[in-house]
């Protein structure tokens, strides 16, 4: 099925999870292709204006970014201001927090998560260039360990804000699951570690950071994330990747 829509991702990216979930939620069959971090840059720029993933290709159309992909699906239940804050602030802080805690620790498993499911040749090259890629990630994402206390403070404040917005409700907009719920849940998933995102559970955090995350998972906001995942997201099965054209759909997540 060469004409099937294709979704290009970095395996553990919560922004890519947002796009993947959106496609699954609307029942679209597609092929997922995982690229190695670092090596994804020239590949992405051959398809789209920037190196950011996810990228969705549908026939001759190219849709870049999880928000744009959500727009393309037409999924209802949006809250533009809340979603923008998650996309521009909270999701960025979550990424910065996780990578600041793990990139400098060889046993964290973060490298293995980033190369999960990528084609073998890409994985070999990715591991070869990993020291350079890791340094570029630390610089580009401001993911240095010394910044962890400040990022932790800012994330705690954002969780306070989100729980105020949630105010004990089951859904952020209306009475049913919608794109605002999907956005908030997916971009907080690396902290909540739902069962449907096994790569997040495989990354090992330093003890002090793990204690912080364990404390946050007891908060109403992250408990809500896990409920949303349990109710609306099935655990991922092996997916179609480079060279394979079996489409993935809501019936075959």
Outline the fold blueprint.
Blueprint: E1 6-9, H1 14-25, E2 31-34, H2 40-47, E3 55-58, E4 61-64, H3 66-73, H4 80-102, H5 110-114, H6 120-128, H7 130-140, H8 148-166, H9 179-192, H10 198-202, H11 207-217, H12 220-232
Parallel strand pairs: 1-2
Antiparallel strand pairs: 1-3, 3-4
Helix pairs in contact: 1-3, 1-9, 4-8, 4-9, 9-12
What does this structure look like?
The structure is a single chain. By secondary structure, this protein is an alpha+beta fold. It has twelve helices and four strands; from the N terminus they run βαβαββαααααααααα. The chain has helices at 14-25, 40-47, 66-73, 80-102, 110-114, 120-128, 130-140, 148-166, 179-192, 198-202, 207-217, 220-232; strands spanning 6-9, 31-34, 55-58, 61-64. A four-stranded mixed β-sheet has the order 2-1-3-4, with helices on one face. The longest helix is centred in the middle third of the chain and has 23 residues, at 80-102.
Strands of the widest sheet, in order across it, are 2-1-3-4
Helix and strand content put the structural class at: alpha+beta
Number of DSSP strands? 4
**Helical segment tally?**
12
Strand content is 5-15%
Helical residue percent band: 40-55%
Overall shape: it is: globular
How do the SSEs run, as a string of H and E?
Answer: EHEHEEHHHHHHHHHH
């Amino acid at each position: 099925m060469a004409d099937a829509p294709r979704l290009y991702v970095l395996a553990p990216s919560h922004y890519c999870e947002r796009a993947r979930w959106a496609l699954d939620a609307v029942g679209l069959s597609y092929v997922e292709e995982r690229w190695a971090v670092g090596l994804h840059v020239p590949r992405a720029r051959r398809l789209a204006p920037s190196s950011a993933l996810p990228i969705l290709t549908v026939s001759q159309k190219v849709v870049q970014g999880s928000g744009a992909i959500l727009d393309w699906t037409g999924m209802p239940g949006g809250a533009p201001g809340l979603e923008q804050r998650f996309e521009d602030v909270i999701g960025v802080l979550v990424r910065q927090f996780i990578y600041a805690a793990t990139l400098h620790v060889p046993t964290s498993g973060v490298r293995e998560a980033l190369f999960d499911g990528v084609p073998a040749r890409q994985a070999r090259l990715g591991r070869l260039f990993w020291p350079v890629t890791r340094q570029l990630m630390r610089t580009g994402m401001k993911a240095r360990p010394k910044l962890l206390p400040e990022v932790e403070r800012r994330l705690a404040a954002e969780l306070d804000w989100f729980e105020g917005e949630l105010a004990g409700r089951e859904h952020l907009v209306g009475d049913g699951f919608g794109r605002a719920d999907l956005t908030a849940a997916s971009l907080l998933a690396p902290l909540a570690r739902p069962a449907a995102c096994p790569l997040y559970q495989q990354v090992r955090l330093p003890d002090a950071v793990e204690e912080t995350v364990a404390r946050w998972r007891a908060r109403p906001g992250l408990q809500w994330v896990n409920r949303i995942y349990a109710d609306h997201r099935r655990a991922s099965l092996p997916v179609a990747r480079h060279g394979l054209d079996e489409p993935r759909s809501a019936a075959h997540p």
